[in-house]
Amino acid sequence: MKLSHDEVRQIAELAKLELTEAEIELYTGQLSNILDYFERLQTLDTSHIEPTATVLPLSNVLRPDVAGTPLPPELVVANAPEAIDNQFLVSAVLDEE
After folding, report:
1. Is this model's pTM higher than 0.70 or not?
2. CA–CA separation, 38 vs 3, rounded Å?
3. Cα–Cα dist 4/9, whole Å
4. What contacts 31, CB < 8 A, 6 or more positions away?
5. Coil vs helix vs strand at 38
6. How far apart are CA 8 and CA 32, in angstroms?
7. Residue 41 to residues 8, 35, 37, 38, 82, Cα–Cα distance (Å)
8. Alpha helix (H) ranges present in the chain?
9. What is the domain class of 5-42 according to CATH?
């Protein structure tokens, strides 16, 4: 599927990217090749393949989610750069109006 330069410009605009003309030329070819490859993949017959989330033989290695005894607040904030009344002191994120 051959993309036009205008289509690549539109994609870049949607992605909030500012591209030079050289980049538009480069990405037009690259994105067209990617879409061509997807078209080839769509022609494959996968009806005999069982759906799977991963092709690797992975198993869940997480520990059980069991409630335990919480740490005392003094110990939790002991290594914090700054703390007040057993609470972490952090810089403001939002401006106050």
Report:
1. no
2. 14
3. 9
4. 3, 8, 11
5. helix
6. 10
7. 22, 10, 6, 5, 55
8. 5-14, 21-42, 73-76
9. mainly alpha
Task: Say if residues 28 and 3 touch (Cβ distance below 8 Å).
Answer: yes
**Residue 32 neighbours by CB distance under 10 Å:** 16
Alpha-carbon dihedral sign for residues 61, 62, 66, 70: positive
- Tens of pLDDT, residues 34-71: 999 999 999 999 999 888 888 888 787 888 889 999 99
Determine the Cα–Cα distance for residues 2 and 13; give it in Å rounded to an integer.
19
Q: What's the chain's length in residues?
A: 97
